[in-house]
Specification:
Radius of gyration of chain A: 30 Å
Number of domains of chain A: 2
Strand order of the largest sheet of chain A: 3-2-1-6-4-7-5
Oligomer: homodimer
CATH topology of the largest domain in chain A: Alpha/beta knot
Strand content of chain A: 5-15%
CATH architecture of the largest domain in chain A: 3-Layer(aba) Sandwich
Largest sheet of chain A: 7 strands, parallel
Chain lengths: 256, 256
């Protein structure tokens, strides 16, 4: 489902998100939305409590219809992940299993690496109330857990899926914003000095530099303020207009 | 509000989250919850549409009462951020302003740096429907935008606050999981070779290595499988028990 222009391309790839016995349709929908936000599309449901399809899921998916429409339902976890070659299990609790534990960023890196190598992969999320069973975690190659406030660790299903999906996209795109600052053409040093001198001459005319022996230091201060402001060429023009306008007022008033 | 033990310490510090004219109490509550999950606590509300306090906000905050209770309400944005020295504005749209644009990770780094230096800081989030006005963004030192799927960019208020809060915590803690894998005491090479030899002698007894000229290569294969499995000392013991058990069955059957 590609958009109408290059910048609106719909990204829909990556690891399967596997929800094990999700309880509320609303949460399934919010997971689908989070997945779509960050370019994931393959949703697998193991034995959803309230059945499937779900109108509540569709409502909270908020337009991520491509994820909801393609979601597949399985009777058991074993069937749901039968074709996957790298399976990571999310859990908030320590499991006393001799198995690697990744944060979401490291996990996303592992998933990107596998995905790039053509290795089918997936991430397991457990029931809203009590997560994954130990025998479900035992089927995974590694564990993902989220760094949360130890005193308030109530991350819900949709939030956990959002963070994993976000890290999946960040692992590819980095922290690059979707748009960059429209930075102005930087001012040349000649432009900058022109501004400084314009300001100084205007201030000379109003006797700003008083007493005269302080002029040198005051000029340095002003020049430092202007130099460190990283002014663009149009911004220098704007400021020269400002000074000229103030000068005109002063000239008008001095004529009156 | 520290917990009962060291591991449950409640983290509650960091930049203020400033919601400008939030419309739904539910969303304010979900923002409070996301903040608490990642150690933020100072919530400021500019002119919330449905008034304050809000029972809906308290319900969706899901236990983040310390954030809701301490939230402060302001009539204008200028009052809400009057004391702040570094203000970042979140926006999904390009604004044609000559101002730095950060992704959430870079923004979190800037906020951590300022916070560590004792500089009061805050992050602005706009209305659910249409975000911040240009004149509101103009009060901020820089812009934060989130890297999303260009074809599906419907990040909501609570999701955006969650990602920013998550990056705030990650900027301090890194990607370190809240618990680490309980890795077993690694097996010594002597233990490993003991396992290999035990397996090989058991297989010799069952004529597994057939034909004999292939024995050397088959042994190498098995030894590589065991060597790369990173076995721990207790795992080696487990596997030796497995082999011994299989041997006993064979011995029993060969006696019968």
């Amino acid at each position: 489902m590609a958009g109408t222009d290059k910048e609106r391309i719909m990204i829909a790839e990556g690891p399967a998100i596997v929800l094990v016995e999700p309880q509320m349709g609303e949460n399934i929908g919010m997971v689908a939305r989070a997945m779509a936000n960050f370019g994931l599309s393959e949703l697998r449901l193991v034995n959803p409590r309230d059945g499937w399809p779900s109108t509540k899921a569709r409502a909270t998916a908020s337009g991520a219809a491509h994820v909801i429409d393609c979601a597949r339902v399985f009777a058991t976890l074993e069937e749901a992940i039968g074709d996957l070659k790298l399976v990571l299990a999310t859990t908030a609790r320590e499991r006393e299993m001799f198995k690697p534990v990744y944060g979401p960023r490291e996990a996303a890196g592992k998933l990107r690496e596998a995905f790039a190598a053509g290795i089918s992969c997936g991430v397991l999320f457990g029931r809203e109330r009590w997560g994954l069973k130990n025998e479900e975690v035992a089927l995974a190659q590694a564990i993902i857990t989220f760094p949360v406030n130890p005193g308030f660790a109530s991350l819900n299903l949709a939030q956990a899926a959002l963070l994993l999906s976000y890290e999946w996209m960040s692992a590819e795109a980095g922290d690059r914003p979707t748009f960059s600052a429209p930075m102005p053409e930087p001012a040349s040093n000649r432009d900058l000095v022109g501004l400084m001198e314009h300001l100084e001459s205007a201030l000379d005319a109003t006797n700003y530099f008083h007493p005269p022996e302080k002029r040198e230091k005051m000029v340095l201060n002003l020049r430092n303020i202007l130099a460190k402001a990283n002014l663009g060429e149009p911004e220098v023009r704007t400021l020269r207009g400002v000074i000229a306008s103030l000068e005109r007022r002063w000239l008008r008033e001095s004529k009156a």
